[in-house]
Write a structure and sequence with these properties.
mainly alpha, TIM Barrel, two-stranded antiparallel sheet
Length: 164
């Protein structure tokens, strides 16, 4: 296992303490910085980064990738009244990500595939996913591929710095 997400986004009050443990265990990425009930950037960052660990005065070598949409943030009953409004909220957020050249990790729980439990949740996913997948400005893929892209990019930047 190269990366992880904490259930309910549960981390230490100082998330960097938890991420320092991830680093010691040699995890390469984490996607645990998110909100349960709203769409957006928990740390205000639309791009992957290496969190700075104040205790050790250095960045942690665990790539933090921003999860910006969880199914519950879109679909808990108090959020949006219907399918159109829920899908629109997701697509609007994706447009913001594109404008800023950022990254958004979406977290849709697997039990949502049982559409008899949460019929609207499944329908929302079924509606926005083909739109995002067909958008030439979006990449949709496994977390490990996304993490590897940014980790390789970071290595190239480090090599460039060493040459100068």
């Amino acid at each position: 296992m190269l990366g992880l997400r904490h259930h309910f986004w549960r981390m230490d009050n100082c998330a960097e303490n938890t991420l320092a443990i991830h680093e010691r265990l040699d995890f390469k990425y984490d996607v645990s910085m998110a909100f349960n009930d709203v769409i957006g950037f928990r740390r205000g960052c639309a791009f992957p980064y290496f969190p700075y660990y104040i205790k050790k005065q250095r960045p942690l070598m665990v790539l933090e990738m921003p999860t910006t949409i969880m199914d519950g943030a879109v679909l808990f009953e108090h959020r949006f009244k219907d399918l159109k409004q829920a899908v629109s909220s997701v697509l609007k957020h994706i447009e913001e990500i594109k404008i800023n050249g950022g990254l958004s990790i979406l977290d849709w729980h697997s039990y949502m595939w049982r559409d008899w439990w949460y019929p609207l949740w499944f329908k929302v996913y079924r509606h926005f996913l083909p739109i995002i997948c067909s958008d030439k400005e979006c990449y949709v893929g496994p977390l490990i591929d996304i993490a590897n892209h940014f980790l390789q990019r970071e290595q190239i930047f480090k090599q460039m710095e060493l040459k100068h």
